[in-house]
Amino acid sequence: MRRIPLATGTPLLAALLLALPVLANAQQVQQADTGWQGKVHAPQYKETIFPPWQHGANNPALNKGLEFTVPEVNDLPDFHGDLDHPKLVIFVAGNYYFAMAPLVQAFEKEHPDFKGRVFYETLPPGILLKQMKAGGTITVGNMTWTVKPDVYAAGLKKIEAGIHDGVLTGKAISYVSNDLTIMVPKGNPAHITGLADLGKPGVTLSMPNPAWEGVARQIEASLKKAGGDALEQAVYDTKVKNGETTLTHIHHRQTPLYLMQGVAQAGVTWKSEAIFQEQAGHPISNVPIPADQNTTAIYAAAVVKGAAHPKAGLMWAEFLRSPTALKIFERYDFKPVSAHKPG
């Protein structure tokens, strides 16, 4: 093909030169609009790795009507049951969302008049408190509803603070404790051996957000035990800024998702959550944290001030420390509170 030489002063070349910035800008806009840095591809995933993971077992409603759940699109894994005239509403920190189904089933067995009339939420404790301060009203996507809790369950310190602030009433009823672990993909491809490895450059992490997850405080304490302020700063400051630490937006439910999706190589969670993931058949494992570096949390519950069903709320709180409930908690390596002191 014959080439036509272009002088810098020709109208054609001038037009091309003028068009280059426009074309480049259009390309940048196109990339920005994709939301995926210009890399557009069809989703390729196994639906089973997305919550809800208990295949409907966590919904205590008797009449489920049309069942319509689409992973990543229409999915409300932290809201359980029927909002139509519940007799017991539980707000429980998401630390043991996986244990709630068998707990509610056992409670209903002991109290048949509650069957199908229990509604519960398993959001992070800080977010649940915000919902309570908003009068129980919450919006998820295009849906808004109002539900006020009868009982609130979270870490013992948060329950005691709620009683002090007048949000909760009565006494704090403690029942089980939990320890931390390092959750990793099955096979531990990043060869994580302990907390110190989380500070290494290049190791990508999924960590609970300190803004609304109480577990972040326990994790920060453990990081300092293992590597001082330098390790805590590396994980929760330096790596957050350079993108190697991804902070969760919901709660620890996101960490196993990030591990299975390859977004992260490790993340600190409660040991019970790693055990549940393994029991669910997900490719998840964990690296134990030594006792001298670990931090223990004690869980407690209390009745919410002004609750519509305070007697039912107290019944649930007392049930949580019953032999029946403790046996369920033991499946996920929770310990009765008498076996631990706060970390």
TrEMBL record:
Molecular function in Gene Ontology: molybdate ion binding
One protein family per Pfam: SBP_bac_11
Record key words, sorted: Signal
The keyword Signal is assigned to this record: yes
Signal peptide location: 1-26
Biological process annotations from GO: molybdate ion transport
Protein name in the entry: ABC-type transport system, periplasmic component
Organism: Thiomonas arsenitoxydans (strain DSM 22701 / CIP 110005 / 3As)
